[in-house]
Amino acid sequence: MKILIDNAEVECKEGDLLIEVMLKNALEIPHFCYQEDLGADGNCRMCMVEIKGQKRPQIACNTFVKENLEVSTISENIKEVKRSILELELLNHPVDCAICDQAGECKLQDYYMDFGLYDSHLSTPKTKKGKHIDLGSNVMLDQERCVLCTRCVRFTSNITKTNELGIIGRGDNSRVAVAPGHELNNPYAMNVVELCPVGALTSKDFRFKQRVWFLDSTKSICHGCSRGCNIYIDYNETKYSAEKVHRFRARRNNKINKSFLCDYGRLSYKELNENFNADVSHVKDLKELLKDEKKLALVSPSMSLQQLQAVKSFCKDNSVELFSLPYIDENFGDEWLKTNDMSANFNGVKELGINYDEDEFGVSLQEAHVVINFDHKYLKNRELKSKKVVHFTTSHVDSDYELIFVIADFAHDSGTIINCDGIRQDFYATKYESQNSRLVDILEELK
Amino acid sequence: MITKIVSKNFEIPDSHLIDVALANGRYSSLKSVFEKEPQELIDIIKQSGLRGKGGGGAATGNKWQIVSDWDGVKYVVVNADESEPGTFKDRRILSLDPHLLIEGIIATCYAVSSNISYIYVRGEYEEFSDVLQGAIDEAYEKNFLGVGAKYRVDITIHRGAGAYICGEKSALLESLEGNRGHPRLKPHSPEPEFYFNEPTLVNNVETIASVPFIIENGADAYRAYGTEKSPGTLLFGISGNVNKPGVYEAEFGISMLEFIEKVGGGVKKGKKLKAVIPGGASTPILPYEMLKDARLDYENLSALGSALGTGGMIVLGEDASMVKALKNLLRFYHHESCGQCTPCREGTSWSDKILDRFVAKKATTEDLEILKSVSNSMNGKTICVFAPAASGVIDGFLKHFEAEFLECIV
Amino acid sequence: MSFSFSQENSIKIASLLNRYPHKKALILPLLWFAQKQESYISEDAIGHISEFLDVPYMHIYSVVTFYTMFRLTKPQKRVIEVCATLSCELNGSEDIKAYLDENYSKDFEVIEVECMGACSGAPMCAIDGKYHENLTTKTIDEVLK
């Protein structure tokens, strides 16, 4: 079936939601309350369109397409409608973009440039509401910047079902709030910051740190557990400081994480910024060690398939017995995104037939003279008396060990991982070169 | 000019007591109700042309039919959230003849195959809902309600708590479900209202109270009153600058000026009539000059650019300040907006604040332009008709009395 | 500090429970009982209702703040609600409010409210839920004496 939007034919199915048809076809449709994974509420009135045969403008988030539908988003009338609604959205807004962290990714700013561009003619005092409200879980609220789209409220009531947030008051005194003496407290709380289309909810972790227009984004996969949530790594390098990752943002994937991340995963970007010094060892010293008979390697189950394959070949070539063990935390998982298996690619380990039998590993470890640790947390900073230990690591290890090779982390080494549901996903390296070598390159050198 | 159908027993002392009520004909229609099939009752209501008396004037029979045809557990909800300024008629029924309402509810429930009814009474009407509760208790005792009744109906009073918007039927149901009174998005095709997802009929108190007469006397007897398109009677309210404010039942289609003069006793202190808000605050004001041929029915007032609404007339005499009157109403809309839709939440507040500048005689020409523009922004862009009503109120005052607003511009 | 309904109210509540298809519908009735019992709705009362009905605390708090008749703080004085909407204003509600402020504000909290549906008795006020209509300064004195 085809419908007409601004005189152009658009393919869709009877009963599709108009706003979704438009978004799917990359057609411009301003909106606040509608969000792909929260649905529509119908309160913001920003997505109004003109529909042939209808006297009044209609909201696209509550219009279901049918045969012969003709939609206009550009007629003079509908432009004026959008302008007037935007004016009311902004009426009591403090317009403090200069100090607002949302600036640059704020829908109010975008729409003002698209549909507003009017001069303010407010001659009466603005409505005062609460500012700098610490909701808990790293989330700060500024009620004056809020457009009351209720995305955050619907997230806590419909998605996490934790119900911390609600609308209080009535009319122009309506505000998003937590109940007195209560706080926002759930393992997914920080999603509300990302869901907020304006600067009302900001992250304590990110605010005042970076202007978003100075950030680059890379498509990646969270390595916090085996769910494989899709993310953007937001990072940059400035004149006076080295490259730094500033945040993870959810990248929508309908099959896995929708538009959401857990707070643990979201904040796990910090590991990528850990600075540590290590004397980098020489490859030739490792070659020397490889002459020993009893060698064992343990590889991190969060390594990419490419890395695992390289490690596997290396071990085969050098007669190293190879193991991997999953990172299991029985207290981590939940019924939604978080899994008890905190390794990013344990399914990859299985696919490559790497031995993950814990008992066998224990026996072999006792007998081994040389232990090569490929970034596995289990062996990091662990006393292994009377053994020669080699670390390929992305994080700090005590320097007493025999040999240390610092390798590029997943933000600097693209690859593929398989999540807990068997979904194979690629992630990419940021545009800045890592100071550390890629594991596969080092292993190549060893050949 | 007075016709007494619904208000027949209002002046009988203690008619809220069941013995008095029974002695004066209450519950007598139930015999004819139970003799008929439910669909016959719906057809009679359709033929009578009964229109919703809560302000909208929609055809009651059609509403019944939709609920009757829809599968599910059915509910009948009586809207007694009477909060439209200038409207105070339903409380008369609740306190002076509650058994008429109960009788009407039983008939309505039977017609749409429902056994459960709620009466949503505005929170402020505590005294009147207490009287109503007493009547319900008595009706249970006499087996008109509950398990012992010929047709089981259970009635529960549900008190609001101070929110005008809960008079809007979908907001009322939200409130009845235990939520904030936010109106719901409107359906795209005819369907009933829903209470916890079950088909639900929402009718105004007076609408339900009109049912017993129609069932007992037939559709034609009802149509003998009023006009072709607005059949029957309405409990008209009259207040403001008049000598005899009150609630008076009259046929649709009578002359408004005659009603004000003869029934309302004319403008206080012999002053001249300046304007009338015809049917509750949300109906646009009409100046005296336009009222010469105004008649109290849906069609006539709509043709004049206003509406019959609830029939609660607010009369303004020659001394009334139109700027102050508009400010008063906009303060009301500002206070009562549910805050859900942007145009309403921000528009009602902004227009109220702008009026302060007019009242203070410190407005500018731009303020007047803004007021018109805000009014336009509120019209036809929201979930419910609250903001469009506020918009209509502003437009009415500015259309007919702009000169008074211009006088407040510095 | 903990809240529980009085025995009398508990009986009423028990009989209301089978009147509604879902417990959640009892939020407004229970808030009314709580307010009648304590003259306002305390945090403990909200907590109690939340547990009793198995409805989130925030939902009930949000509902309380929507309806103007619910009070979250204990009134220090008896409340006089003076209707200030149009029919009352046209009949002198401003004078009534001023008179009450001047003569009775020591013992009463005088507040303006929107239309109470008593326009034919304008000006009017409500005290403890009871309407007093056709007010004059003289009748106010009689009522409040």
3D structure, described in words:
The complex is a heterotrimer of chains A (447), B (410) and C (145). Chain A is of the alpha/beta class. Chain A has eleven helices and 20 strands. In chain A, helix 2 packs antiparallel against helix 3 and helix 8 (305-317) runs parallel beside helix 11. With 410 residues, chain B is α/β, with parallel strands linked by helices. In chain B, a hairpin with a 5-residue loop joins strand 6 and strand 7 (246-251). In chain B, strands 3-2-1-5-4 form a five-stranded mixed beta sheet, sandwiched between helices. Chain B has a five-stranded mixed beta sheet with strand order 7-6-10-8-9, with helices on one face. Chain B has helices spanning 18-23, 29-35, 38-48, 60-69, 90-96, 98-112, 126-141, 169-176, 205-217, 219-223, 256-263, 298-303, 322-336, 342-359, 365-378, 386-406, and strands at 75-80, 116-121, 154-159, 193-195, 198-204, 233-240, 246-251, 273-277, 286-287, 312-317. Chain C has two domains: 7-66, Arc Repressor Mutant, subunit A, CATH 1.10.10; 78-144, Glutaredoxin. In chain C, a hairpin with a 2-residue loop joins strand 3 (125-127) and strand 4. The longest helix of chain C is centred in the N-terminal third of the chain and has 12 residues, at 27-38. Chains in contact: A-B, A-C, B-C.
